[in-house]
Amino acid sequence: xxxxxxxxxxxxxWIGVTFRHTNWDRMSRxxxxxxxxxxxxxxxxxxxxxxxxxYILDRMPxxxxxxVWAAVHCSKIHDLQIRIRSGGHDxxxxxxxxxxxFVVIDLRNLRxxxxxxxxxxxxxxxxATIGEVYYRIAEKSKKLAxxxxxxxxxxxxxHFTGGGYGMMSRKFGTAADNIIDAKLIDANGRILDRKSxxxxxxxxxxxxGGTSFGLVISWKVKLLDIPEKVTMFKVPRTLKQNVTQLVYxxxxxxxxxxxxxLLRLFLRSSxxxxxxxxxxxxALFKTMFVGGVNELLHEMQNRFPELGLVKEDCIEMSWIxxxxxxxxxxxxxxxxxxxxxxxxxxxYYFKGKSDYxxxxxxxxxxxxxxxxxxxxxxxxxxxxxxxYGGKLSNISESETPFPHRAGNIFMIHYSVTWGxxxxxxxxxxxxxxxxxxxxxxxxxxxxxxxxxxxxLDLGVNNINGNTSYEQARIxxxxxxxxxxxxxxxxxxxxxxxxxxxxxxxxxxxxxxV
Length: 513
Known about the structure:
The protein contains 15 helices and 18 strands. The model is unreliable at 1-25 and 39-62 (pLDDT under 50). Among the domains are: 3-106, 2-Layer Sandwich (Uridine Diphospho-n-acetylenolpyruvylglucosamine Reductase, domain 2), CATH 3.30.43; 230-316 and 342-441, Vanillyl-alcohol Oxidase, Chain A, domain 3. Helices cover 28% and strands 21% of the residues. A seven-stranded antiparallel sheet has the order 15-12-14-13-17-18-16. The chain has a five-stranded antiparallel sheet with strand order 5-6-10-8-9. Strands 1-2 form a two-stranded antiparallel sheet. Pathway: Alkaloid biosynthesis; nicotine biosynthesis.
């Protein structure tokens, strides 16, 4: 039947049921009805029966969407939480774990991508990865692109609903800013597009966390004009090479440089190779410029001569090659790697957090970060500074639920990874200590955070779904600022019983379930 069941018993009891794509379009109406009836009435849902009426057949297209609809429909009848998995990159695992019985709807086989180069648009199913989207666009055109994140195995289903900051966001805005239509299954089982869902719901799913409002099946995006060549560079520096002054100066120009320039900064530390030596702090200036090398050198000389960039540091390449460059694949790697779902490292533990910086961090503040880097045992602790400004500053905070616009110099992504579970407590304690230290240098009232870097430390809903507005607002305003109230009103209108819920979903004004 193309559906599988996974059972797992841990200290958190849960059941995951994965519905995968089936060739419904090749089956007769009667066969579809019988197949769905068997699937949903048999042991597929651990003995829970769910009769499939002609409602399904009368209202659903014959595609993988039918399977997804059936899963949503049956889950609602039996009041089972659903977890929607696209790429599986949720920082807190909310797309595939829960403390209550739940159903996983795995969208990985809903990954069709249809490119229209004449209209400069694309329809993208929610199970596709960012890498697949980039690859399929480049297949069709060398002068069209899309703006989204760096990691090619991230699924578009979650990335787009959280806003979608990307390499060209200073030039084109976020992924959500470039979405022009969507198809969604709502809490009443209706399949809606932009026209039928209305502008409120369409607004909410573009940065407000789509799994609060329904299950997005596909997105229509506008493709973006780019030159055939872009320019990239990676320039490393250490403390002995004046890193502190370079980072301090970077903060004053990163949001003000040409909109075509993303001057990203990575801060890391590693163990000294010498016995008893301190950790070494590294900075990596990693850049994409939408244009040629000579233009880039001119801009860098005017804005950031202290870095000492020279032509030999720079590489001109196609936009699609720049994706591999930013994702740290070796030069010459086949573009086919973008179609690989398994390129992400596995077998390690991870904790991430985020912040927004609106005033440059002082020299003393930076030196305090270096001291904290000396207290971590892992080689994989990192701070990533992602510049804002440009187009991001020209869009209103309320244009989409993603509110991080004018006034932000850069976003900080904190992360630490480790290899053994026994080291979890000390590494989580370290990143929390760093986050606490940074409080005086970042945005306040609220201390803002990026929804796609989900962090349950900010606050959680009640497990049973009975979450008050006041409780959810604790974490909600950090992700969405003043947009949180509008999201709650939309949730109340479209999902008043709070069917689509998780530990950080938008609650309706009355969320008794």
